[in-house]
Design goal:
Length: 194
């Protein structure tokens, strides 16, 4: 199975008016995505933010749980943050992976929209489980990454379709659902699921 990395992109991102912005970090994204990444054995969770002031905030929060009094209050949180890295841009995350694995990663992203290079969860799961090349799965904040940025990636995973027509999950929920579909157990293949 391929090593899997994930990244949370904060720029360039659309706002609800389709203007390009930089989104703010949220405490929940730091904690919840780190815990989900650890649960699914993701090698590294990259928090990708261009603003130093936002990285300082993220670093303070993470250090509270990694080396501060949070270590004693909630040791599980420390463990979740062990494989979390703060980087300035996507290129820094890619260089980290190349240094870690000796190979350029396949870059996969997610979006609520469909593109020409959109693949299904089954196709992507198969690629990850049959390949040894590292995969970097990117998640956008706000209203998603810009179309220009999306065109640069190797694959785009199909949107998450629920039972209704609403299609605007928070990124924490999307990360959990997508990692479960790509890396989780194959519960649908058991006799009990029939």
């Amino acid at each position: 199975m391929a090593p899997v990395y994930i990244g949370l992109i904060h720029y360039p991102i659309y706002n609800k008016h389709m203007e390009v912005i930089t989104t703010a970090l949220t405490n929940y994204d730091l904690h919840d995505i780190a815990r989900t990444a650890k649960t699914y054995n993701v090698k590294t969770y990259f928090i990708i933010h261009p603003l130093e002031s936002q990285r300082v905030v993220a670093s303070r929060i993470m250090n509270h749980w990694k080396t501060g009094s949070g270590v004693y209050y909630n040791p599980n949180r420390k463990e979740a943050f062990e494989d979390t890295e703060l980087v300035c841009n996507l290129e820094d995350a890619i260089n980290f992976i190349k240094k870690d694995c000796g190979k350029e990663p396949v870059i996969v992203t997610t979006d609520a929209r469909v593109y020409p290079n959109t693949v299904t969860y089954c196709e992507m799961r198969k690629k990850i489980h049959e390949d040894e090349t590292p995969f970097l799965i990117l998640f956008g904040t706000g209203y998603g990454m810009t179309k220009e940025m999306m065109k640069k990636f190797d694959y785009i995973i199909e949107p998450i379709y629920g039972a209704g027509s609403y299609n605007h999950l928070c990124v924490r929920s999307a990360v959990a659902i997508i990692l479960d579909r790509l890396l989780g157990e194959t519960w649908w293949n058991t006799k009990e699921s029939l």
